Fold this protein.
Amino acid sequence: MIVRYLLEDDYETWNHFVEQSPQGFIWDYSWWLEIVTDGDYKICALFDDDNLIVAGISLPFFSTGTIRQPLLTQSLGMLYEDMSKHNNMRLQKQLTNQKEYSNQIIDFVLNDFKRFSICFNYNYDYWLPLYWKGFKQTTRYTYVIDYSNYVLEEEFKRFSKGHKWVLNKVEKKSDLKVIKVDDVEEYLRESDKTYQRQGVNKPYSNDIVRRLYKEIMNRQMGTLLKIIDGKNQTHAIAFYLHNDREAYYWLGASDEKLRDSGGHTYLTWYAIRYFADKVRFFNFGGSMIEHVERNFRNFSAIPRQFFTIQYGFDTAWEECKKAIKKLLRKA
């Protein structure tokens, strides 16, 4: 086996590998990394004896010496080949391969950065090889719907009472309707309003969203939905990313003044039904914020763990700095 950094000529091969990897998604593509890092990234891949990629990892902001999560990108981390396609490969053998692949890649790249902090895909669930290399992890959560055993009518019955009441109200007693949007500027206008109402700075630039939108839509990997009333007021708008396997709730905005209409909740329910016959999984995107997590949980979705994995950070000092910043803000 050979491990090396990829050249630009290798990126088409890498993108094909991302498509079949259980840990791969849209943000692992080279074109996504190019935009969100402004070209400052490396991809390290492990090739087998047939010159096929069997594992790899993206390293955003490589030149800085600190590998960190780009904005607008939920997960990156280690990707493996789909070992389930190997006839009757035992779990023990799969884990052994993952350990071997991970060790070869990490040994190759470890001297090229000082610090590392990346969220890994929720299908990366065996992080011991990195633990043995001195990495640390923090467990986070997302919520996922698996459509293979998800009957819409039956699952609706399992929603929280509050969600069922809101959804029935919108369905039967309101003039709200969901429509597709084909202009990213509509989302950007609504998101600008949301951040202005909250009195906080937008954490990403509109230009990056525009550039990503162009690439996403050219590849038919995005859907924008909004919910409006009879006066053409936008109650909520949401941007979903999707490939053949999974739909992901990427970006959203809503009008706080119209929040009581239930439009935001109904838009999510509409999206769940919309993607039911198009993908295998619906990913809510994850949140460690209590009221956001409760909203996802109330849709009868499955909690899935994923890891923020770090190297080179003094975790105790980082927590101390956060506590100090919090106290200063209160002061």
Observations:
- Residues 41 and 71 are 14 Å apart (CA to CA).
- The radius of gyration is 21 Å.
- Residues 2-134 form a domain with the Aminopeptidase fold (CATH 3.40.630).
